[in-house]
């Protein structure tokens, strides 16, 4: 409990610091809205001309897209600091964090707040709400419970995968981890129905790099859509696996860390 | 000329020395290409056509759009932004070279490598997927000319966005917003032919469309109303106009610079 409280206060402190630069805050919010707007424009243009892609209608795709945006916002809010991990290692600044009586991973995560988080959380939440309103979902207690399990699990997967991707900095040792940015971009592929990709790519996105469990599979399970809908029920398990993986990879990396020498 | 040649050479060597970040930022564009290929193949693969695009034509469009996305990507502006923010730009001001021409020379150095890398990817995709209709030699020459005009054009857009750093602290938001806006208005996100008429007219009146739409339409031989040579002339006109505008902006911006100590 205490651990969580410190984590929240750390984030809060960074939040206040960043909010001091109001113009930058608004620029980043607008940038997030524009970026997601471009993605939505693509979806809107396509569905203006065809009713379905591989059996997926417009609001179903928007629901997947909304989940991806929301998850991105969550990872920018909770684990943005990991994007600075490469720099912390490169300059040997992790020393300072290792001396404090608090989990190093959480310190790294809360060492920054991504300002586009607010844009992305708002846009993602809005898309989720709009899509659900159009989809005519029967909100039985079972459905509500399912959503209550799937949503946090999906967000947790994204946050954990961000940590895993950035933990590779311990091995790569550059000042900026472009590898993580590449992986992140690979995850963007799952914004669209998975079946459009070749089988090999689908397998990678579902197992080795389970980005498909952030949007596609949970939405399939929730809407009971398609042959693979049952796979989405594994989302909480995948989330647990991803969290364990993130912690394990970070620990392994930390053991390799040998400061900067001065 | 000599100092600029040297600057271009150094930029080229820099990109070669930091190969990993370069290749990773390229891989991000490649992943996007993969997603777009899969998405449009799902829509057009079985012989359909949308807004006058068949699958072979769309393949060509996506490749041209990928190519123009690769040219003058993020190196110029992020380097500029960090020098403006840290005050290191003061050193650039002291040098007896023109700031704008200097940055352009660097962008050219990078563009050489970007062209080589993008051409390699395009060649691989062509071999793997095949079936892209090649234009006749006359139009091919015009297409190459218009690709060449994209370099200064895109540089000027990127450069002017970089100058905004004289007013703001944070560059990430500006860069994300630029990528989103120019992605939409250039036709890189969705071909302009898919837009509703009013948005297409807006896009056609702006310089962004000359970045992706013009070369792609030349390649496909679909420049409605405008003969090919005229389309290239419009691109060049934008280059001249934006070059002048960027100079004005620089003169206003540089007056805001305050560098503390040294």
Automatic annotation (TrEMBL), chain A:
Superkingdom as given in the UniProt entry: Bacteria
InterPro entries tied to this protein: ABC-2_transporter-like
Sorted UniProt keywords: Membrane, Transmembrane, Transmembrane helix
Residues passing through the membrane, by range: 25-48, 55-74, 144-165, 194-217, 229-250
Protein's name in the database: ABC-2 type transport system permease protein
TrEMBL record, chain B:
Keyword Chloroplast listed: no
Keywords: Membrane, Transmembrane, Transmembrane helix
Keyword Zinc appears in the UniProt entry: no
Pfam families per the UniProt record, alphabetical: ABC2_membrane_6 (PF06182)
Highest taxon in the source lineage: Bacteria
Record field: transmembrane: 20-40, 60-80, 110-134, 140-167, 179-199, 225-246
Name of protein: ABC-2 type transport system permease protein
Organism: Micromonospora haikouensis
């Amino acid at each position: 409990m205490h651990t969580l409280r410190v984590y929240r206060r750390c984030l809060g402190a960074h939040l206040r610091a960043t909010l001091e630069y109001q113009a930058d805050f608004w620029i980043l919010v607008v940038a997030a809205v524009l970026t997601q707007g471009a993605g939505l424009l693509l979806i809107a243009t396509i569905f203006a001309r065809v009713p379905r892609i591989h059996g997926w209608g417009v609001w179903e795709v928007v629901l997947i897209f909304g989940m991806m945006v929301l998850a991105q916002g969550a990872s920018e809010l909770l684990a943005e600091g990991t994007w600075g991990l490469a720099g912390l290692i490169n300059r040997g600044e992790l020393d300072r964090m290792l001396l404090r009586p608090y989990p190093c991973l959480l310190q790294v995560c809360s060492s920054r707040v991504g300002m586009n988080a607010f844009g992305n959380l708002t846009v993602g939440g809005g898309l989720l709400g709009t899509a659900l309103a159009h989809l005519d979902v029967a909100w039985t207690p079972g459905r509500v419970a399912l959503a209550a399990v799937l949503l946090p699990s999906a967000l947790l997967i994204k946050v954990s995968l961000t940590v895993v991707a950035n933990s590779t900095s311990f091995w790569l040792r550059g000042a900026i981890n472009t590898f993580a940015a590449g992986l992140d971009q690979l995850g963007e592929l799952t914004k669209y129905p998975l079946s459009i990709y070749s089988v090999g790519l689908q397998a990678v996105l579902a197992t080795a790099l389970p980005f498909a469990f952030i949007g596609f599979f949970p939405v399939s399970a929730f809407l009971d859509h398609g042959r693979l809908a049952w796979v989405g029920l594994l989302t909480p398990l995948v989330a647990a696996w991803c969290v364990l993986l993130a912690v394990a990879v970070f620990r392994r990396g930390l053991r390799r860390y040998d400061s900067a020498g001065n | 000329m000599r100092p600029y040649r040297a600057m271009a050479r150094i930029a080229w060597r820099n990109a070669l020395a930091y190969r990993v970040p370069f290749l990773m930022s390229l891989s991000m564009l490649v992943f996007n290409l993969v997603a777009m290929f899969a998405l449009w193949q799902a829509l057009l693969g079985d012989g359909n056509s949308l807004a006058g695009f068949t699958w072979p034509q769309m393949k060509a469009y996506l490749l041209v759009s990928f190519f123009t996305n690769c040219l003058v990507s993020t190196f110029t502006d992020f380097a500029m932004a960090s020098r403006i923010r840290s005050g290191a730009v003061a050193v650039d001001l002291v040098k007896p070279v023109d700031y704008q021409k200097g940055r352009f020379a660097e962008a050219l150095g990078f563009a050489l490598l970007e062209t080589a890398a993008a051409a390699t990817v395009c060649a691989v995709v062509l071999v793997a997927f095949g079936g892209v209709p090649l234009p006749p030699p006359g139009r091919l020459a015009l297409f190459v000319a218009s690709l060449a005009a994209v370099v200064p054009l895109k540089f000027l857009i990127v450069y002017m966005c970089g100058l905004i750093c004289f007013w703001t602290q944070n560059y990430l938001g500006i860069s994300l917003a630029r990528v989103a806006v120019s992605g939409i208005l250039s036709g890189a996100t969705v071909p302009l032919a898919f837009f509703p008429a009013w948005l297409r007219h807006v896009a056609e009146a702006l310089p962004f469309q000359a970045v992706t739409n013009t070369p792609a339409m030349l390649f496909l031989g679909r420049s409605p109303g405008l003969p090919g040579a005229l389309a290239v002339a419009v691109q060049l006109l934008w280059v001249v106009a934006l070059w002048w505008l960027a100079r004005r902006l620089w003169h206003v911006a540089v007056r805001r610079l305050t560098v503390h100590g040294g």
